[in-house]
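Form 12-C: Joint structure prediction
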Amino acid sequence: MGNCHDCFYGGPKNTNVRLSLPVVCFVWEIAMIVLFGIFVRYDEETDAHWSEFKIKHNISSNIENDFYYRYPSFQDVHVMIFVGFGFLMTFLKRYSFGGVGFNFLIAAFGLQWALLMQGWFHSLDHETGKILIGVENIINADFCCAGTLIAYGAILGKVSPVQLLVVTLFGVTLYAVEEFIILSVLHCRDAGGSMVIHAFGGYYGLAISWILYRPNLHRSSRLHGSVYHSDVFAMIGTLFLWMFWPSFNSAIANHGDGQHRAAINTYLSLAACVLTAVAISSMSQKTGKLDMVHIQNATLAGGVAMGTSAEFMISPYGSLIVGFFCGIISTCGFIVVTPFLEKYLKIQDTCGIHNLHAVPGMLGGFIGAIVAATATESVYGKQGLIDTLGLTGNFAGRSPGTQGGYQAAGTCVAIVFGLVGGAIVGLILKLPIWGDAADDNCFDDEVYWEVPEEEESIPPVLEYNNHMTHKNQDLCESNFSVEQI
Amino acid sequence: MGNCHDCFYGGPKNTNVRLSLPVVCFVWEIAMIVLFGIFVRYDEETDAHWSEFKIKHNISSNIENDFYYRYPSFQDVHVMIFVGFGFLMTFLKRYSFGGVGFNFLIAAFGLQWALLMQGWFHSLDHETGKILIGVENIINADFCCAGTLIAYGAILGKVSPVQLLVVTLFGVTLYAVEEFIILSVLHCRDAGGSMVIHAFGGYYGLAISWILYRPNLHRSSRLHGSVYHSDVFAMIGTLFLWMFWPSFNSAIANHGDGQHRAAINTYLSLAACVLTAVAISSMSQKTGKLDMVHIQNATLAGGVAMGTSAEFMISPYGSLIVGFFCGIISTCGFIVVTPFLEKYLKIQDTCGIHNLHAVPGMLGGFIGAIVAATATESVYGKQGLIDTLGLTGNFAGRSPGTQGGYQAAGTCVAIVFGLVGGAIVGLILKLPIWGDAADDNCFDDEVYWEVPEEEESIPPVLEYNNHMTHKNQDLCESNFSVEQI
Amino acid sequence: MGNCHDCFYGGPKNTNVRLSLPVVCFVWEIAMIVLFGIFVRYDEETDAHWSEFKIKHNISSNIENDFYYRYPSFQDVHVMIFVGFGFLMTFLKRYSFGGVGFNFLIAAFGLQWALLMQGWFHSLDHETGKILIGVENIINADFCCAGTLIAYGAILGKVSPVQLLVVTLFGVTLYAVEEFIILSVLHCRDAGGSMVIHAFGGYYGLAISWILYRPNLHRSSRLHGSVYHSDVFAMIGTLFLWMFWPSFNSAIANHGDGQHRAAINTYLSLAACVLTAVAISSMSQKTGKLDMVHIQNATLAGGVAMGTSAEFMISPYGSLIVGFFCGIISTCGFIVVTPFLEKYLKIQDTCGIHNLHAVPGMLGGFIGAIVAATATESVYGKQGLIDTLGLTGNFAGRSPGTQGGYQAAGTCVAIVFGLVGGAIVGLILKLPIWGDAADDNCFDDEVYWEVPEEEESIPPVLEYNNHMTHKNQDLCESNFSVEQI
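Section 2 - Result
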């Protein structure tokens, strides 16, 4: 079978990842073990000394352990990262293995590096020099991976797994730095990461894709689309992202009303977004038919855009308004902007992350700035305003208006980090050592995966097909192995 | 390809939803924003004033926020609504997009209207005239959508998305009214909604389907069945419903033992139900083979039937008995009653909701009545009885026996609302303005979705198929585009 | 169609489960109802007397009910049992119904028996003679089923559902006994069940498969493999197992830091495991391509091996080391050991449970022994050491070193129970009364399921296929029904 198959696809496809992929994985994992050995320890709520800590800090019950506040949300976020992002990328007819499999690989790779990078910036115990980790850290590590997985959406099908590991290594590093600047230096609030995750990740991916532009990508056009069941698989990803987005935006919000409000605002925004995405999708086709690409993606824009303001008092109708406009903007992006980007700006964006992450993330950042700037004590209460905007310590005197300005500045920082970082990483990926596929083998799992043969998937009908296949063998000059039939 | 395709399916299929679907979505969503702006605000546990509320009400910890009692259950319910119901309806060979996609649309549409309708009846702050929402409201909104999604099961593949939005609009409205009568006026207990969700939703859908009877539906019989992988997709829906049903029945039960007991009773009932559903399915076939329709549906009847009594002291073996009989009744319904309904009562019930929701829901209502009527202080404890049956305030003097009578009456109210409401909505849907598919285009995603072409899904084999296709082109007088091959 | 189909598959396939399967299901379920009626009641936290219990025991809040500590983890475990194990076994091209469907049946069957068996050993109220159940019991019941579902992996596709019910009946019984010996008599710690679940279940399945060796299994080799989309379905199982494994290992760990630490250790181990599994998979192929079998299975070995030590202070880098080596060992197992076992030891292990459960489980047991033996008060704190190793009551004086010895002994007990128990159960399954499939019908859903016909799954292309099919009918001497086309 192999011979025949190759004749259709233009010869051997050995991309030589056999050496580079294992080497990178092993070297990396060993480095992680060493660095974790030096730096990473359990925090007080995770350590077996917790029973003493409880007594010392007069904590009355085990249920006050942060685990019980955040672990259910963590699991939802975890599902979004691995099943949500993973299955959303199975929509291509012959790149489902790569979509879900490489997503799995790079998220598992990225979260370890994220624990270290974010730990050095945020969770370092300055007395001992150790990074102390607990449930909030693993949520943040998952968030950090999300930035890179978004970028993967733009280059899906066009890069090798080794390149993806490089994208992840730099993506996590850049993320940790921009997050430090935005959250710690500028002291922005961004519980659900409109800025630090989506705007950064979106522009990071677009910049990489711009540098890696393939003028002859049309040679893979036979594989650049979905089939019926691959679209249904992608809906698994869409729905798990959509359903668990309230957990995403509330996972690291303040205990109590903060988490509660973030979940409800996101729930509402996402619901509104579905209706306008459907409306625009139907309007865009001559016959009013819906396009699965829009349903799979644009319905999620409402969650992205609520990332910053979900924990604010944006009010229920405010959430609906955000979802309303983001559904429209995102769907129009798929219809108008993605083809424009490809044609005029030479940006090939496989999953349309421009419309789902980059633009809604940027909008979410600015919406958050406006909502923060207009916050008042009458709406939030005196303590509520301080808690929600985090105006304590060095930032105790900052007014809501000033906070809004900093939020807007933070959004710009995220975009700049994405664009500049992505361009640099793109140039690194241009080096001819990474084993990426040829232009006519993009979007093809055969390049990096052992793909099962299909002849016998549907026994009775295929018996006929095989009979016919024999008759037509001369067309292919192949030497079919039929002994298993 | 289009030309050829049309010649198989009898000409153009423009159902003119291009105007009506976007208009309905936009008008509706704008109405929602206006109404939310006028009416909907955060409740005390969601508002930023929570820190003051805590002090005023002497609440010691953020973990006492209702969010932590109910949010994990909410997320499970959310998965049931969107992935559970959605994927359960992907079983048809060419209506998987419609199954999961329209389910997504109408649930997102319905939950907003449900927040308003249920809010006016249940959560209105009479001082300010505002609806105050929190996590319990969004669980209830999801529940309310479930009623309509059940009805969708009966008419799956036979109605347009615009009709579905009408079904949802009226379904949510009817639901809110019958729920008010059953829970507030009659003061029934129905934590998992055997009555208010399943009996109502089931009979609502059956009545609609009865009015919309299509005598020539057999013209779509080529599409009225599953294929191998569509049945596997449907199992995703089945399993997420089955697994999370304990959360469904316990989500809004009383804090503490109420939620705990509801989850365990449902867990047991569902387990028993699987065994009897399998047994009857095997017995019903000459060769003892199992039928996927039964496994996908009848295994869930035990959860439906425990909706009312899950929070009662039905005892573990009582739960098993409920599951035991519901598995039998539901499977027999699929084998005997569904064909009978179609042949003699002219009710075409695509998913068999009669057997999964209508009958088990009704039974669940009456089981709840019996269990409530036989409740005693020795079994529940004095306070336990009051809490579990909700015999406080105006209802403090009601005896368990009387409560049982009201529970039975509540079940009848739900059924009457379903049947009468469904008949009226069915008549509205008969108006020739909704863009429903012709009899020979039912169960076909091509009518409302851009469906990907399939020729190249399996490259090597398909090359042969394409060769053969060329030879046979004259059969179709088509003009295949082959340039991308 | 039936006639034609049979001619390919060698005549009728009635395996006579039509009598045995329903009889076993009914008899069993009735027995369960009787036994539950005699023995099973709600525990204090599930019973309506909880409000009195709270006052008596000075419990300040409903949130202290064990439900809120464990229910989110229970739901994650529940997903692993039904979707995780179920979908992991859908990878075969024509045994997806059997994979997910029989998994569903036997888990629902097993959990009821597990509640009784484990209840008699662990939760018996000696005053009343009743088993008192709550959320921890249903988690343990799910765990107990996991042992049998692992065994199912070895015999997937080769046994009848009746045989599976026998495997489950004995598997749950053996599990309860070995669990009692390991946890209660030897007083081992095994929160995530490396020993009691994975080592036991793995060797139990291998022993059964060894006894049931089929020398002519190659006759089914046409069905012994995956197709493209069945591999994607299997990834659903893999990912839900992988994502929720932190909940699995922490579900019944100690409240507070115990659950917290177990989750984080498992999270880290699994992440490391993915990288080394990918590395070895790529190295094992001439062209560096990845093998889906490894990605679907070996990536999970890190969770299995952390089952015992997840709640210990193994430290974050210790967790990474465990994952690192288990990913290597498991992948090498798939490449080297599984073929060896089949060729030389006559063990046909369909899913490779040797590499995913038996060996990592055994390793996990010994790793736990080492970690326990090296525990010190300085690392755990005085109270932390007592709590984590459970050195209270009769075991208060036991040193960590001694505890380590007992842990190692416990691992051996689990393996012996698996091997001996499996061999005995295998012999019982050899009786010619169970309706198992012939050697040439293994891995074929047609034997036990009504499988939908496939001809029309893809309308336009299939029209051509049907035309061609007609031409070729003589090849089959069939009488195709074409009236529905």
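Section 3 - Comments
Confidence is low (pLDDT under 50) at residues 1-13, 455-485 of chain C. The CA atoms of residues 23 and 203 of chain C lie 29 Å apart.
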